[in-house]
Design a protein that fits this description.
Blueprint: E1 6-10, E2 17-25, E3 28-35, H1 55-68
Length: 73
């Protein structure tokens, strides 16, 4: 089965909205309005030594990294 697809991404018309994505095939078209990412995100950690940041914050980061390596239950 050979389906021709076209994907278009448009900049949002409003500051509150995210990108608008349109996917078209031979049989139809669907448009999605993506949510704008939150601006209240935490800053990514810097590549620095552990002693250069708050020890509690460093411990929290290390727990989060360790949780990524846990097997899925």
């Amino acid at each position: 089965m050979d389906i021709k697809k076209t994907i278009h991404v448009f900049e949002p018309l409003s500051e509150k909205d995210g990108a608008q994505v349109t996917i078209s095939t031979d049989s139809g078209r669907k448009t999605f309005q993506l949510a704008r990412p939150s601006t209240e995100q935490e800053q990514p950690p810097l590549a620095i030594e552990s002693f250069a940041i708050n020890p509690e914050y460093y411990a929290e980061l290390m727990k989060r990294v360790e949780s990524l390596n846990q097997p899925v239950k």
